[in-house]
Amino acid sequence: MAQPSSKKQRTHPQYELLYHPGIPGRGEFIRLALEAAGVPYTDTANEQKDGYSTVQKICMNTGTESADGNPPVFSPPALRVPGAGKDGKSALIISQTPNILFYLGEKIGIAPEDEASKYHVQQLALTALDLNNEVHDSHHPIAVMLYYEDQKEESLKKAKDIRESRIPKFLSYFSRTLQHNEKTGGGQGKYLVGDSLTYADTTVWQVLDGCMFAFPKEMQARKSEFPDLFGAFYEGVKEHKGLKEYLSSERRLAYSMGVFRHYPELDRQ
Amino acid sequence: MAQPSSKKQRTHPQYELLYHPGIPGRGEFIRLALEAAGVPYTDTANEQKDGYSTVQKICMNTGTESADGNPPVFSPPALRVPGAGKDGKSALIISQTPNILFYLGEKIGIAPEDEASKYHVQQLALTALDLNNEVHDSHHPIAVMLYYEDQKEESLKKAKDIRESRIPKFLSYFSRTLQHNEKTGGGQGKYLVGDSLTYADTTVWQVLDGCMFAFPKEMQARKSEFPDLFGAFYEGVKEHKGLKEYLSSERRLAYSMGVFRHYPELDRQ
């Protein structure tokens, strides 16, 4: 992991993750980044009494302000950073998963400092988050507010396309990125960019892991096509110092009815 | 518009936009940012002989490199920046629309320099691009590689949800952001963040404009709900110095069979 470049950066504010309780969801990408960096944070909805009402008040209101003088938030997740507001005293609230990751990348040492690599890490995270959105649509192709059961026919078609066309296209891209890094002397097949763990690794890893939960047969069948991705990369991230303890802790929430859902009928038959 | 902070920043490399020819698509968000800043660029596929084969070679190959030693690209658009590569000599290639916008925001004076505003601009752009993706899915809810005609039944359902639930949710967020800026002393109803044009404005504007093309009846009916957005904001961006000439030029491509398509049956009836 890149070392923070100054003493100042080593003292972190008490970051607060504002997200729905009980599911990994998009909040998980933020959790993994913070856990990997060993930086303490508060998972407000899961840890605080009435925490979800705080999340709702800040991220799901329909007013012209989120909180602390910050502009509105479209939807969770958001990150609350005490003392980082515009006036230098109140809290900064930022939202959109890739935006939060970019911000944290600069603060907690999970992104490289050179410009080309910094934007490459964000490019990978954005692409993994695109796949995350597509997987969500495999069980909600018509409307996010309808039940799966009310769009099951369409889900069967959508999931087929995602499994047969989209997942291999994304896996190929991630796999070729690993190979490029290794060919140019970095990563040893364990990291996507450079020689240390970045939020590109944790984000791609989470989407891989989620797909294994949602589509176990499909992913099992793809293993031999992308041995590097399922092997040194996937297994390596799990063993990373900051993540190993987290992944076996109670803080790591089980997949259930969030983005990654296991409906056997949507998997490879 | 924020002024570039040093003389160095005023000398720009010859930016090259790598995108599909003949459609505005996701490339348009990059074009608008560059045009608004008055920074020259090459629209490779539309301006160069065999330009699209360059785009295909760099952004749509299945190898372990895009070009100039850069890692693979998942799909267009990408930005080629001569002289900005890792070795300080070759070109840097970066992809993912919001990533390119963030990068340009730091280089060409279309993003604020203070941290809170910089991430707020990116938050807005990411959210507008999410709506852009949802609108794409209104005519391709099942599979990007199938014809619209082969997923028309599903499109009728999907478009209904996008018009009735999603578009108003996004418009409300953009409108409340305008109001927040004005309430805290900025923007005069013309800018989403601060007192000058940013890529948040151009990106939200393009999605609004595209929705007006795709769903003219729906958007007409929404005007009275969001008078600020359709009024001072939408009209103001069109009149911006750098954009007015562009929007009436031949460089501004007509909507056709890209993200924004006008199928009357998908509009409000």
TrEMBL record, chains A, B:
Domain GST N-terminal intervals: 14-112
Signal peptide: none
The organism's place on the tree of life at top rank: Eukaryota
Gene3D superfamilies (alphabetical): 1.20.1050.10, Glutaredoxin (3.40.30.10)
UniProt GO BP: glutathione metabolic process
InterPro entries the UniProt entry points to: Glutathione-S-Trfase_C-like, Glutathione-S-Trfase_C_sf, Glutathione_S-Trfase_N, GST_C, GST_superfamily, Thioredoxin-like_sf
GO MF term set: glutathione transferase activity
All copies of domain GST C-terminal, residue ranges: 114-266
PANTHER family reported for this sequence: GLUTATHIONE S-TRANSFERASE
Entry protein name: Glutathione S-transferase
Organism of this sequence: Salinomyces thailandicus
